[in-house]
């Protein structure tokens, strides 16, 4: 049976290693929008758990979910925390309320974005906060050849900045199964993101986060 390029099951280790090498703008930005302390937090599409452990420093309980079983196994192995519960599961099967809800680079995978956003809103407790970040692009889909050429172009930059060994590893990881995954992705434009998310989350605040777009929304109090 052909692999589903949208699945992370067969790219979990590669995805994790690539992010270790190229950095994580979301992880650097996230502490700026996190309250000092809180009760319950949810990480939607937690992947290897790198953001869940940031939440764990601020919240007593963190639920971290991902549809990919191998990703959850990786998170449990690499980033175990006493107050983080990793679970393979679907967003729409998750119930709240949560004081903080995070989704990073996840919601472009869902078949019905509007339904997903409305469900996310229902998970946020009165007075809580939702922070949603996703990749945006002027074009909905990026051709495979364009992504490959981009990796070739960056190879020379990485050789100068990181050395040939690291540069080649980044290139190899960027042009394997992960490239097929990225070519299958469909993105909103920055303006489309603001409209779609702002429709469900009135008075949300938007700002760029690297190549992605971020939204911060504070739920009304009781």
Descriptive report:
The protein is an alpha/beta fold. It has 2 domains: 12-137 and 186-218, Rossmann fold (3-Layer(aba) Sandwich), CATH 3.40.50; 144-181. It has helices spanning 12-22, 25-29, 52-56, 69-78, 113-123, 144-162, 164-174, 177-184, 190-200; strands at residues 38-44, 59-66, 84-88, 98-104, 124-135, 205-209, 212-218. Strands 3-2-1-4-5-7-6 form a 7-stranded mixed beta sheet, sandwiched between helices. Helix 1 crosses helix 7 and helix 6 (144-162) packs antiparallel against helix 7 (164-174). The longest helix has 19 residues, at 144-162. Mean pLDDT is 85; it is low at 1-7.
- Biggest β-sheet: count, sense, barrel? 7 strands, mixed
How much of the sequence lies in strands comes to: 15-25%
User: Largest beta sheet: what is the strand line-up?
Assistant: 3-2-1-4-5-7-6
Order of helices and strands: HHEHEHEEHEHHHHEE
Uncertain stretches of 5 or more adjacent residues:
1-7
Helix content: 40-55%
**In CATH terms, what is the fold-level topology of the largest domain?**
Rossmann fold
CATH architectural category of the largest domain: 3-Layer(aba) Sandwich
Mean pLDDT: 85
Q: How many domains is the backbone divided into?
A: 2
Q: What is the number of E strands?
A: 7
Termini Cα gap = 51 Å
Which structural category fits the helices and strands?
alpha/beta
CATH superfamily of the largest domain: Vaccinia Virus protein VP39
* Gyration radius over CA: 17 Å
GO biological process, one term: methylation
InterPro entries: SAM-dependent_MTases_sf
Protein name: Ubiquinone/menaquinone biosynthesis C-methylase UbiE
Keywords: Methyltransferase, S-adenosyl-L-methionine, Transferase, Ubiquinone
